[in-house]
Amino acid sequence: MRAEIISVGTELLLGQVVNTNSAYIAKKLASLSIEVYHHITVGDNAERIKEAIEAAESRSDMIILSGGLGPTEDDITKQVLSEYLDVELVLHEDTQNKIITYHKNSDFEMPKNNQLQALMLMGAVPLLNDTGLAVGSFLEKGDHSYIILPGPPDELEPMVENHLTQVIVDNILDEQKLVSRIIRLFGLTESQLALKLEKVIQNQMNPTIAIYAEGGELTIRITAKGQSEEECDKMINKVEKAINKEVKEFVFGYGEKNLSDVIKDILIEQEKKLLLLKV
Q: Hey, which residues does 229 pair with through a beta bridge?
C-alpha cells in the first residue's frame, strides 16, 4: 500500500512553522509497512488543495491531510475534501459536547464557528482528539482511504498513536497482526550502518527494515505482518539474527530507551554517579 501526506497551511509554506507532522506520520506508517512516496505542502487555498488531492489519488492508495481543522476562515481542509468527494459533513455529537463543556468550564463565550471543529465526513470513522477540540476522520471511498488530522503536533500525535493506528489495522490490514522490534545502536554513522546491512535490506519484503538516525544514535525498526504474534516474532528473530551478524558490537539496547536512559539504569543498578568536572 502507498500513502501520500498532504500538509495544509500557508504558515508552512512561509516557513513560519516547521512541518514536523509529515516526518512523524511517515514513521508511523512505516511501522505498519505502508510506504510513503510523496509529501506535499499546500497553502490554505481550496483549488490548490483539490489539485493536491487529485494528484495524490493518481499515485497513492491512502491520502492523509493534516491541518486546517480549526474554527477560523482559513481552516478549510474538511470542507474542501467534502466538496471534492461529494460527501456531506455531519456533526459528531461527542465532539460538539466536548466543545460546549470546554467553553462553559473556561468561562469563555463560545463563538458559533467553533462548532465547525465537530464536523466530520458522513460515513467516516471519527478520530477522537484527546488533547484538542477538532475531530479527525477516516473514510474509505472507492479505491482510496482519506484521513483528516489536525495540524498542531500535540493534537495530531496522540490522535495517530491512540486512534488512527488501530483504525488502519482494523480496516485496511486484513486483520493481520503487526509486530515491531526496535534495535538501538551507537558508534556508527547512518551510511555505515546502511552499507553493513545492504544485503539484509535489499532482501526485505516481510519483515521490513527501517533505519533512523537521531541525536548521534541509530535505530533499526523491524516490522513483520502475520496471522499471529508468534508468526511475526519468528520472522523478526530471523532478521534480527542476520542484523546481529553484521553489527552486534554496536548494539546497546532494545525498545524505546535511548543511550542516556540505558547509562542511567546501569549507574543506578551499580549505585554509581557521574562526576562532571569543569575544565
A: none
CATH 3.10.180.10 fits 177-269, yes or no: no
Written out in words, the top-level CATH class of the domain with range 2-171 is: alpha beta
CA gap 233, 268 in Å, rounded = 31
Beta bridge partners of residue 90, listed in sequence order: 120
Domain boundaries, the chain: 2-171, 177-269
Can you point out the beta strands (E) in the chain?
A: 2-8, 35-42, 62-66, 89-91, 119-121, 125-127, 136-141, 144-149, 177-185, 208-214, 217-226, 251-254
Query: CA-to-CA distance for 12 and 44, rounded, in angstroms?
Result: 10
Q: Is the pTM of this model over 0.85?
A: no
pLDDT in tens, the chain (279 residues): 899 999 999 999 999 999 999 999 998 888 787 889 899 999 999 999 999 999 999 999 999 999 998 888 888 999 999 999 999 999 999 998 888 888 878 766 766 677 789 999 999 999 999 988 899 999 999 999 999 999 999 999 999 988 998 899 888 876 667 788 999 999 999 999 999 999 898 877 788 888 888 778 999 989 888 888 899 999 999 999 999 999 999 999 888 788 888 888 888 888 888 777 776
